[in-house]
């Protein structure tokens, strides 16, 4: 077990998440203490008992601790580079949690970086899509890793509008961070998800003040992995044809259908405001959910358990 002196040294390093390492000793991350952590809000609604879980872009491993405490059977933490392995090992020791780490490089062609038959009940991709040149390519490569009927949690910065556009972080006008690129509209992100056979079943949005992008904010979405073209609108003949015949699609998103892929039985507690629509149609309109159905939260919360801070006794 690490000594208190060793923990104090680790706590003084750079952290993305905030984490309690001992009574009264907290490693402080990059977010205000009252800012809500949207993936955490949604992941606690998933029944992770005996689930195979994958976290893409894991950083120090906050979500892996919560997956472990949620009863997950197998947890894989993956990131582009092994830049947080010491802090990850510290959390594993302090929180008595176990998972495996996999270095995967750029977030493309992900299905080629895992075993050919490897798939998961629950896959998280949070805080990644704005860091990649091609969000569409990344979503395409995630889909083969999710079991049929499994859950995909995706979180990224978006623009709260109905349009078929993404805005680029030209000259760092929104974010000075050099690896930040794209901000899709909510409706375009929804179409990307549906195009790759992900049907949204829950979401939460937080508005973020911006001097240059009206409607800017962060969204987390939970999707069910459904069969070929089942998430698209019935009259979307272009989408259905593209899924079946596009060279890009067939090469970059090597999905398996029917008996070729294992089924997941993972449960999810859809909130009451969305239950009726999800029960009737299997999904809902993201923009409507954010703007009319109450799937929006303030940028501050008084509930510490909803923030980026992981405490020793937290269970979810």
Automatic annotation (TrEMBL):
The protein's name in its UniProt record: DUF1698 domain-containing protein
Superkingdom of origin: Bacteria
Organism: Sapientia aquatica
InterPro entries xrefs: Mo5U34_MeTrfas-like (IPR027555), SAM-dependent_MTases_sf (IPR029063)
Coiled-coil ranges per UniProt: none
């Amino acid at each position: 077990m690490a000594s208190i002196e060793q923990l104090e040294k680790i706590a003084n390093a750079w952290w993305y998440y905030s984490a309690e390492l001992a009574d009264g000793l907290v490693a402080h991350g990059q977010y205000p203490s009252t800012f809500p952590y949207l993936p955490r809000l949604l992941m606690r609604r998933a029944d992770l008992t005996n689930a195979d879980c994958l976290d893409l872009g894991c950083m120090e491993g906050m979500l892996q601790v919560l997956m472990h405490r949620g009863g997950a059977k197998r947890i894989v933490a993956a990131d582009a580079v092994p830049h947080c392995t010491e802090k990850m090992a510290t959390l594993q020791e302090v929180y008595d949690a176990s998972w495996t780490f996999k270095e995967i490089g750029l977030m493309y062609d992900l299905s080629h970086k895992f075993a050919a038959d490897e798939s998961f009940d629950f896959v998280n991709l949070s805080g990644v899509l704005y860091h990649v040149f091609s969000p569409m390519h990344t979503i395409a490569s995630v889909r083969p890793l999710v079991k049929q009927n499994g859950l995909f949690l995706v979180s990224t910065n978006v623009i709260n509008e109905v349009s078929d556009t993404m805005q680029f972080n030209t000259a760092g006008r929104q974010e000075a961070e050099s690896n930040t690129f794209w901000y899709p509209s909510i409706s375009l992100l929804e179409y990307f998800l549906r195009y790759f056979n992900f049907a949204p079943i829950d979401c939460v949005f937080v508005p973020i003040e911006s001097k240059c992008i009206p409607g800017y904010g962060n969204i987390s979405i939970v999707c069910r992995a459904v069969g070929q073209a089942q998430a698209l609108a019935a009259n979307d003949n272009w989408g259905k044809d593209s899924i079946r015949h596009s060279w890009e699609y067939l090469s970059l998103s090597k999905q398996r259908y029917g008996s070729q892929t294992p089924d997941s039985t993972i449960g999810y507690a859809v909130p009451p405001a969305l239950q009726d629509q999800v029960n009737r149609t299997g999904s809902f309109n993201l923009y409507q959910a954010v703007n009319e159905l109450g799937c929006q939260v303030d940028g501050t919360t008084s509930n510490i358990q909803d923030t980026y801070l992981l405490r020793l006794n937290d269970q979810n």
